[in-house]
Amino acid sequence: MGCLQSSGGKEPEELRPRDEEAEGSDEEIPRATSSGYIVPTAVDEVEVVNEEHGAHEVPVESLPAYWTNRRVHGEASGKLCQHFDQMVCVSEAGRQAIRELVRGTYRPLVTQDRPCPKEPACPKTPAGCPCVKPDGTPGLPTEYVVRRVIRVEDSEMWTRYAQKRSQIRERRAHRMPLRGLEPELFTSQVVATNPGSYDSLDTGLNEVYLWHGTHVRTGLAIAQHDFNLEFAGSGAGGMLGSGIYFAESCTKADEYATDEPGGYYEGSISVIWL
Fold first, then answer.
1. Which residues make Cβ contacts (< 8 Å) with residue 125, sequence separation at least 6?
2. In this structure, are residues 52 and 82 in contact, taking their beta carbons and an 8 Å threshold?
3. SS3 225
4. For the whole model, what pTM was predicted?
5. Percentage helix, strand, coil, to 5, in the chain?
6. Is 199 within 8 Å of 63 (Cβ atoms)?
7. pLDDT at residue 142 above 50?
8. Sorted alphabetically, which Gene3D superfamilies does this protein's record hold (predicted)?
9. Domain-by-domain residue ranges, the chain?
10. CATH architecture for segment(s) 2-273
11. Rounded to whole angstroms, how far apart are CA atoms 10 and 138?
């Protein structure tokens, strides 16, 4: 998941959120998670949360190549390691890859789900109310500043996902490869240029990376406990029914991402990258 700040098109330059690291600061603002953990301020990848899962073991080679745990456990134990569940604060190199992803999936478009920031708020309008359009006041954010990136490394969850992917591939073997997505998703275009930062995708299954926008505290809860379908549609409703909604554009995900006015996360939103 990523913690972002948005920058609006009509704000004076001196009022726009700034990237502290880009200006020479080597320390970030510490963030308190919903369960009381504190995300360290170190720039390098460090463990934030660690929950062991008994004596079950997982092949190290089955883990994503860019995971910190694959490197650490591979060096320590070789072929097998015990299951783990960790949140890792991503290094500067990893954050740079996410910055490129944010820039590459940004589109200056709005829908009726982008909330009006004024009081009283405009009624929900197809294609967005005038206040949130690119030429409106305050308008659509012109960019997003990546403040922090936390990667969930849960070996059991990954194993379940990999097994499900294999089952789908076996069931649809007679139809492989599946008809590709047309046009190609924004996310796929960017991921292809950063192979070292993302796990390889099975394009024959139309496997893709997508965004999910939410509140920072909710994002941290999802990172620790997974998505909860009981809350499906509780934020912005469900046009297509109960389920978990994702987007190929960070701008679209931002429509459902909220900050915490007057609180610790004021000015910051959360987008989850899956």
1. 112
2. yes
3. helix
4. 0.78
5. 30, 20, 50
6. no
7. yes
8. 3.90.228.10
9. 2-273
10. Alpha-Beta Complex (3.90)
11. 6
